[in-house]
């Protein structure tokens, strides 16, 4: 199989597996225990927190470990809403369901939710955010990189606007972390979401950055772990894995980015050479280096991929796939239904080779040729 769906999930890196393995075997202590086995587990969690903090350049105490990005997003949106009582939340039409679904729930509870449009490249206008802010605004939530098109949002500009207005600002950085440099001070965010399985850690572990001075009402209450902000016995093996994945990402991001971009551009060029009508969905430059979302006009993406069992790719965001319907992200960008129907998302990763990219292009073009006949 040729795997080109790294935006959906990544394999666990060998180094990550080796780092977590002892904590699945002999080092099984509870970090809340006072004897040596528990102390070693507590130290492992602290070390992991330091490693995650180093990746996004924050203080270790500003991090909360979660089960993933969905929990982290829900924690920010619902937690800030419960803390503030009422008010307005600003977000965008291209957010992941882990943001839009909580927003819809809050809307049903009386909160005002302002969903901003995006342009044809899938990017939100910072001035639109500025205009949307009112005296009732309690939170702005804009993703860093879109999971379908890879479009990078002007987070730093929005962060500057939010800070000037005295409004807390959250970004879902699940897709960008580990692929491009992500530093909270440069982005000017108050909350930031991470998902381990997007950068070679296991599924089911993530983190939430909470800038010092910001607060929320905890979603999960209990014995008071994570400084009382997220109760529950720590998943030590997975936290160790997340920390190691962050250490690897920090070391590799400078070399991975250019390599991903080269492979992505090669794939695009070969598809375009064999199918000149190919349409790029999203920005040419302002996107993740590993992501290519293209439409084959006149064809169905599901018909294309359905005939290539040896190629793993996606028709849209992998965590909300279903029947053949137009992607909400592409619809928000104004992509015509006939083009959106033929969209395919291809994303490369650390294990992707140039040979695989060339073969993937050959398979896609061959399948289109069969369908055309």
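^ structure tokens above, recovered residues below v
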């Amino acid at each position: 199989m040729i795997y080109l769906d790294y935006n959906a999930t990544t394999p666990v890196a060998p180094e990550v597996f080796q780092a977590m393995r002892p904590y699945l075997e002999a080092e099984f202590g509870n970090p809340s225990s006072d004897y040596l086995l528990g102390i070693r587990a507590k130290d492992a969690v602290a070390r992991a927190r330091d490693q995650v903090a180093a990746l996004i350049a924050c203080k270790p105490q500003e991090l909360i470990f979660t089960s993933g990005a969905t929990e982290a997003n829900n924690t920010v949106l619902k937690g800030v809403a419960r803390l503030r009582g009422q008010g307005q939340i600003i977000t965008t039409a291209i957010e992941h369901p882990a943001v839009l679904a909580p927003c819809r729930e809050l809307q049903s509870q009386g909160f005002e939710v302002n969903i901003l449009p995006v342009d044809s490249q899938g990017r939100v206008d910072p001035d639109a955010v500025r205009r949307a802010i009112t005296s009732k605004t309690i939170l702005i939530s804009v993703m860093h990189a879109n999971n379908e098109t890879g479009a990078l949002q002007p987070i730093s500009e929005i962060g500057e606007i939010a800070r000037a207005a005295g409004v807390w600002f959250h970004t879902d950085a699940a897709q960008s972390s580990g692929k491009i440099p992500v530093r909270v001070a440069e982005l000017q965010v108050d909350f930031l979401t991470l998902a381990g399985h997007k950068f070679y850690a296991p599924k089911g572990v993530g983190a939430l950055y909470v800038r010092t001075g910001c607060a929320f009402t905890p979603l999960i209450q209990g014995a008071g772990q994570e400084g009382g902000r997220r109760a529950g016995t720590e998943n030590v093996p997975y936290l160790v894995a997340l920390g190691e994945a962050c250490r690897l990402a920090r070391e590799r991001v400078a070399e991975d980015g250019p390599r991903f971009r080269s492979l992505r551009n090669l794939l695009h060029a070969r598809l375009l050479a064999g199918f000149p009508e190919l349409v790029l969905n999203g920005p040419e430059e302002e996107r993740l280096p590993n992501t290519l979302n293209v439409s084959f006009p006149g064809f169905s993406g599901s018909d294309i991929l359905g005939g290539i069992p040896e190629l793993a790719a996606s028709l849209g965001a992998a965590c909300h796939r279903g029947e053949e319907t137009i992607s909400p992200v592409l619809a928000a960008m104004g992509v015509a239904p006939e083009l959106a129907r033929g969209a395919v998302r291809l994303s490369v990763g650390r294990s992707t080779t140039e040979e695989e990219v060339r073969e993937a292009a050959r398979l896609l073009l061959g399948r289109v040729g069969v369908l055309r006949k």
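The longest strand covers residues 88-92.
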